[in-house]
Amino acid sequence: MDSFNPDDVAIRSGHFIGGEYVDEDERGDERRIEVARPSDGVIYASVPVAGAGMVDRAVENAWQAFRTSGWARMAPRERAKILRRFAGLVEADAPFLGRLESLGSTRPIAQAVGWDVPFTAEGIRFYAEFADKVGGDVAATDHDHLGMTIAEPYGVIGAIAPWNFPLVMASWKIAPALAAGNAVVLKPSEMTPFSVLRLAELAVQAGVPAGIFNVIQGDGRVTGDELVRHPKISKVTFTGSTRTGAAIMAACANSGTKPVTLELGGKSPQIVFADAPRLDDVARRIAGAITGNAGQVCVAGSRLLVERSLAEPLAERIGKVFAELKPGATWAAGTTLSPIISAPQAARIEGIVGRTLEAGATLRFGGVRADGGAAGGANGAFYTPTLLTDVTAHSEAVREEVFGPVLTLQTFDTEEEALALAQHPEYGLAAGVHTADLGRALRFVRGLEAGTVWVNRYGRTSDFMIPTGGYKRSGIGKDLGRQAYEANLRFKSVLIDLRP
Ligand code: NAD
Predict the structure, then answer these.
(1) Could you say which EC number(s) this protein's record lists (predicted)?
(2) For residue 364, how far is its CA from the centre of ligand 1 (angstroms)?
(3) Which residue owns the Cα nearest ligand 1 atom 31?
């Protein structure tokens, strides 16, 4: 994928309600938020902030569309056909959608076009295939009764997405909700608000009825909160930080109650035993799991736990992989190290690393701002991949989700010690175990308090059937898999007396 000029990409801002953009003069929004490009800090657009009135308009529109457009009632295979067409349009739009995604986010263009857009399209296709597969069950009752559960859509789903993979994270919410026959009102992050508008446009082009997929813009405090509390929102699905997740859960309890799916933060361990096969590959995997998207990944493998004898050779190899990465603007073809989303977030990373060093840690690699200027990223916030050793479970960089390319290394001598170090007091999103010993790998699969365990690999494949979601404070419920589809349905019980 070639480099491109971000100023050449047409940005369409606003809310998308009832199948169209809401015009400037009829908005009545209270204020606007400026949107900056992480790669160079340039403010390139702004978004309106939907207040209570605009949120109400979007949800009412969705509710009417849910009741009257026929989306929920149509033959599920027809719904699937429209969603497959939607997926095809997303795929075909990769040259534009990839640029739109890339320019204002942390996603380098090669990855946005090569992964984010096709993965979004395939996720929509995956859930389209579910549309006629889950209708309910017939219960084993006595002969004189017929008992059933009937699967029904909720109505209007309120979806709130983070900035780190704007299209993919939103699609994990939207695709199962739509396939199950719901309407959706989506609020993207105010830092990455534009690519999902294009997604909503393409949905309408594909034949999703107007009003079934709506996008509202704004911040969390006003727009997100109004959306979650709206009485006609039947269910909320959220991906973001643990703190926001807790606030949303409280808002759901106080305005409903409403069911809620929460995909939250993590502090995931990578456990490497001395018998792990192919050390060079392991090093590449470990480095990749903390530098992909510059560590701004919920499942970033941020805590390296390594058997003592392997610590030095592994650290050395990880340092070599770190050194290969090229920071630069997301629109430069050769960029392999993403910018940090914003200057305050880069300062936060610096603060955590600085305080961890002051408390006695050793800096093996990185620990400074990187220069993205050579590849168009002047004035962007870049941070060098960092490895900290001589840390403990109490070190700030070991405890806190950094959301940056910062890896800590702790050593262990026994399996028991490794397992104890791996358990985080709060988070339980994912973990990686690297060993040639199958029994040991499975003991860790059983023992780890984590929603996902990868063995001799780290990160997702394109197996959408495998759900993702956290244990402990990393979340409630799942995205992807059958579970996420079923979480967009409610089940009605029916019991019929058959006696004459
Ligand atoms: P965030 O919690 O700051 O914001 C996420 C979204 O919530 C944004 O759209 C924001 O506007 C909205 N929001 C904020 N306050 C709100 C409120 N009170 N009510 C309603 N909405 C509100 O998170 P972020 O910085 O955008 O994303 C990074 C976080 O997301 C990290 O903690 C990361 O681990 C997590 N994450 C988790 C997963 C997962 O699958 N578990 C995936 C990606 C990111």
Answers:
(1) 1.2.1.5
(2) 31
(3) 241
- The pLDDT tens digits of the residues spanning 237-258 come to 999 999 999 999 999 999 999 9
> The domain containing residue 129 runs over which residues?
6-264+476-492
Q: Same domain for 237 and 313?
A: no
Token digits of residue 499? 């006696």
Ligand 1 mutation target, pool 107, 293, 298, 478, most atoms within 8 A of CB? 298
Distances (CA, A) of 23 to 103, 106, 162: 24, 29, 25
Ligand 1 centroid–CA 271 distance in Å is 27
Q: Is 263 a catalytic residue?
A: yes
Which pairing describes strands 145-153 and 136-139: parallel, antiparallel, or unpaired?
antiparallel
| Helix residue ranges per DSSP H, 28-160 | 52-68, 76-92, 94-103, 109-111, 117-128
Residues 144 and 287 in one domain: no
Q: Report the residue among 241, 248, 348 best suited for mutation to probe ligand 1: largest number of ligand atoms under 8 A from its CB.
A: 241
Per-block mean pLDDT, blocks of 10 residues, the chain (500 long):
94 96 71 95 96 96 98 97 98 98 98 98 98 96 98 98 98 98 98 98 98 97 98 98 98 96 98 97 98 98 98 98 97 96 97 98 96 85 97 98 98 98 98 98 98 97 96 98 98 98
User: In terms of domains, do 253 and 380 share one?
Assistant: no
Q: Are residues 442 and 344 in the same domain?
A: yes
Which residues have any ligand 1 atom within 6 Å of their CB? Answer: 160-164, 169, 187, 189-190, 219-221, 224-225, 228, 239-241, 244, 247-248, 263-266, 298, 401, 403, 429, 468, 470, 475, 479
